[in-house]
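Reading group handout, session on sequence-to-structure problems. Before we discuss, look at one worked example. The prompt was deliberately terse, the way you'd type it at a terminal:

> structure Oxaloacetate decarboxylase

The input record follows.
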Amino acid sequence: MEQSLNNAFAILVVGMITVLLILGLVVVLGNLLIRITNKFWPQSENTGKAGSGSAGIHTGTLSAIVAAVEAVTGGKGKVTKVEKK
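And the output record:
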């Protein structure tokens, strides 16, 4: 009986160490992949001024969108960014 418990405990320890090592490897490789990706393929910078997500939309269209959001939400909604797809 004691031999079975020793074997079970040994398997438990080996399994937990293995899982810890694999998860550590995943974290290290993930961070490495992120750093390499950001170094060679950086995210394009936004050329417009900060906070203006509606630079390419006409003012009439933007005011219509803002009016529609205010009407639907009862004045509680706020348009912060409009993107054209």
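Points for discussion. First: The chain has one domain: 2-42+54-73. Second: Helices lie at 2-40, 59-73.
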